Amino acid sequence: MSDPAPEKLFSPALQPAVRERFLHADGDPFTGPRAYLENAGGGLTLKAVFAADQRVGALPDNAGRDNPASREVGRAIQAGRADVATFLGAPAGTILSEQSTTACAFRLLEAAALGRRGGNLVCSQLDHASFYDAAGILAARHGLERRVAPLNRATGALDPDAVAALVDADTAAVTVIHASNITGGRTDLAAVAARVRARAPQAMIIADGAQHAQHGLVDAAGCGVDAYVFSAYKIFSKPGFAFACLSERLAARPHAQLAGKAAADWDLGTRDPGGFAAFSAVVDYLCWLGAQTAAPAPADRRGLVAAAMHAIEAHEAALSRRLLHGADGLPGLLAHARVTLHGQRDHRAGREAVFAFSVAGAPTGRLVQEFGRRGVILHDRVSDAYSGHTLAALGVREVVRVSLAHYNTPAEVDAFLRALRDLLAPA
Q1: Which of 375, 412, 402 is nearest to 19 (CA)?
Q2: Pick from 212, 187, 216, 214: which is nearest to 307 by CA?
Q3: For 123-141, how does the pLDDT look when each residue is reduced to its tens digit (9 = 90+)?
Q4: Is there a shared CATH topology between the 14-46+300-424 domain and the 51-281 domain?
Q5: Contacts of 353 (CB under 8 A, 6+ apart)
Q6: Residue 6 CB-density burial (10 A; 0-12 exposed, 13-18 middle, 19+ buried)
Q7: CB contact at 8 A, 402 and 339
Q8: How many degrees, rounded to 5, is the angle at CA 413 between CA 382 and CA 426?
Q9: DSSP assignment, residue 259?
Q10: How far are the Cα atoms of 132, 133, 382, 388 from residue 385, in angstroms, in the given order?
């Protein structure tokens, strides 16, 4: 991994300008003012996303027709694909759009497994259910073995050697999560890819970036994976859209498609053109943010995105330090004897701004409700279809999750810390 940028909060002038670009940054339309600290479940939405979606979605034709409206629809779709490639750092390869990360997971693993006789698929305990379950279902369907790499309970992350130890000459695909939506543990994708390639060069490496995408720069080409997948709504856009970039060798694998389509064409039917325009609005926003935070500002779109993501990471690191260690007389999360943090205790090394914790003697559902009454929105992860396998690996049945984004402020972190202090105060 590259060395992280220095921790640095946004300036007092920039922070409100950032928040102004998001819907409901300061309050919920039903309950009023609150601190939104449930960003792992989906980021707040940019105002420009709805404008772009409405403008393109309202056009009176589909792409591929000989009229001005149709040509504008086609232009928006192609611009959206180009902006996905720019965001991912993927100048070559196929851009796939789907309804969700889960849909991408099933399609990509199906392509990797199709036609194999024997062999295995490798996933991990840290994987989101979209990949964990897809690996299990498709392994059973195609007569393959599913191998599951253990997470590191101490760090809440995935060790590259633990993944590599399970691959061999019969491995069809390896799924690897870039960052956990429970513990915040971040995986060194380049290290995983290098170790897997050394042992199993034929294996397709598919990265789940749904959680990481809003927290740090993605370099899909540089990290050596065959596919990088993320959900648009996790990075400030609309639900119902996920994107992936595919390497040439994965794109060329047999896959569901209409007869007569190019071999590397993965589109199935007509997608909502507004979703592509909406993601272009996200990249426009990141370019604006990059221009505010880099001096001199890069001249190209990818350079501006990189500058924005470095600034986001630095801001969130400063917020994470405050959350874990406290500030201005407020004790941090780690200062409370009844609190157990699941995963890396460092506020930055090997993690992102997503934290899972338990409070001795307090059910997580009640804690989430009590935080909500105090104007702080959190979420709990319980042993269900989404999180059960990861929580079991951590040795718990439920956790509270607090997750930060770059539009969050020190004051919102302090609101969380005050609520925690009050809830843990002796009766």
Answers
A1: 412
A2: 216
A3: 999 999 999 999 999 999 9
A4: no
A5: 39, 184, 215, 316, 317, 319, 320, 403, 404, 405
A6: exposed
A7: no
A8: 70
A9: T
A10: 11, 9, 9, 6
Cα-based torsion angle of the residue sequence 97, 102, 108, 113 in order, rounded to the nearest 10 degrees: -160
Residue 111 in tokens: 């392509």
Tell me the CATH class for 14-46+300-424: alpha beta
Over the stretch 13-49, which tens digit does the pLDDT of each residue have? 999 999 999 999 999 999 999 999 999 999 999 999 9
**Max CA-CA distance within the chain?**
72
What pLDDT was estimated at residue 426?
A: 84
Q: What is the pLDDT of residues 50-76, one digit of tens each?
A: 999 999 999 998 899 999 999 999 999
Q: Indicate if the alpha-carbon torsion angle 380, 275, 53, 218 is positive or negative.
A: positive
Beta bridge partners of residue 358, listed in sequence order: 340
SS (H, E, C) 373-396: HCCEECEEEECCCCCHHHHHHHCC
How much is the average pLDDT of 181-190? 97
The first and second tokens of residue 184, run together, are 């915040």
Domain 51-281 sits in CATH at: 3.40.640.10
* pLDDT at position 4: 56
Nearest to 343 by CA among 185, 189, 211: 185
What are 351-385's pLDDT values in tens digits? 999 999 999 999 999 999 999 999 999 999 999 99
DSSP 32-69: EE-EE-BGGG-PPPBHHHHHHHHHHHTSSS-TTSSSHH
- The count of other CB atoms within 10 Å of the CB of residue 11 is 11
Among residues 139, 42, 149, 129, which one has the least CA distance to residue 384? 129
* Owner of token pair 């990249």: 283
What single-letter amino acid sits at 423? Answer: L
Each domain of the chain, given as residue ranges in start order, spans: 14-46+300-424, 51-281
